[in-house]
Amino acid sequence: MLRNKNILIGITGGIAAYKICELVRMFKKNDANVKVVLTPNAKEFVTELTMDTLAQDRVYIEQFNTTDKKPEHISLCDWADIFIIAPASANTIGKLANGIADNLLTSLACAFTGTKLIAPAMNTGMWENRFVQKNISALKNAGMHIVEPESGFLACGTCGKGRLASVEKVFNEAALLLYENQALKGKKILITAGGTRENLDPVRYIGNYSSGKMGKALADAAYNAGAEVTLICTFEETKPYKTITVNSALEMENAVKNEAQNANCVIMAAAVADYRPAECSVSKIKKDKNEELTIKLVKNPDILANLCKNKKQNQIIVGFCAESDDLIENAREKLAQKGCDFLVANDITRKDIAFSSDYNEVYILSKDAPIKKIDRSTKENIAKSILEIIFKGENSGN
Ligand SMILES: Cc1cc2nc3c(=O)[nH]c(=O)nc-3n(C[C@H](O)[C@H](O)[C@H](O)COP(=O)(O)O)c2cc1C
Prior knowledge:
The chain is α/β, with parallel strands linked by helices. The protein has 2 domains: 6-182, Flavin prenyltransferase-like (Rossmann fold, 3-Layer(aba) Sandwich), CATH 3.40.50.1950; 184-395, CoaB-like (Rossmann fold, 3-Layer(aba) Sandwich). It is 34% helix and 24% strand. It has an 8-stranded mixed sheet with strand order 12-11-8-13-16-17-18-19, sandwiched between helices. Helix 1 (20-29) packs parallel to helix 2, helix 1 (20-29) crosses helix 8 and helix 9 (213-224) packs across helix 13. The protein is elongated. The protein starts with 5 loop residues before the first strand and ends with a helix.
């Protein structure tokens, strides 16, 4: 699978740098091409000679001694299929999160638009430092993949979280990303996420408990699999793909109509309100004027059903249903009534999954295939499985 893949490995000045010798060997044994770039500080931890020999190529360190026509921070970007930074020091992580490019490795990270895999390693105090954590979140939000450090005995003599993840784990994660990057290449996927808010007055709304985590996980998984993703959500998001923020069901309907035109697949994971207040007061509704307050609600458009009615040729439409009773029966009915290709059903009464949780367990219904259950797992894993099932039929020509 890795034959002729171009792996760029960046090593920073951390004590775990010696472990990367083994990582380089693993890629070489799997027929990948490897180039290694060191920060100047990493030279204190591993020698150029060792890395030269293992990678069977010269090591890249200096930013300004290039003899090539293209500077190395550009030519190496053109060459690499993936850029792995391991170990990633707290210092370099801080630079990556802030667009600082003051050596060859950080310039490369700034210029490289492909898949980046970051494996941090540091002392527990550094790892738990709130600025380091903020930087890690910023890298995740920018679409970089983080292999979390592990807990255990650290080189500084203490015990805690911060130890570099095993090189096998870093290798497997990279191999998976290289594989995943291919799966949905060329597909345009539209995903909705979050709960809509139906305004009553300038300060109040009728909403629901949807966190949008499932939709976000789907969008991330589709992006990681190489798809061109648009996420329409009810919260602000900074992602490496297109995001559109909406508030109400009507705004969501509008955005979906515009974006669904060219989509190969639309996944409606958002919890769209069925009803909205018939009127939205321009000024705040005052308590003293009303002993009782009756709000008249009117039906919102059924975005999913309308999408299915106007379905484009070969478009795949996926609905979601959150049920509190008779999950499968209600889901079957909804699938037939809406006319979508797949319906993902989850039970919202369970405390260990669904709303606001990082976990889910779902059933996938479709017109022609038996119901598939995806057992409880993180929403990231559930998202990957859902995409696999949706696009399996396509790839096999079903
Ligand atoms: C013996 C030793 C071990 C170190 N180990 C780490 C480490 O594991 N992780 C880390 O973030 N910094 C570590 N540091 C601190 C970094 O070397 C320092 O922050 C340096 O500026 C990193 O530079 P770079 O990110 O440009 O490679 C260590 C320093 C020393 C002297």
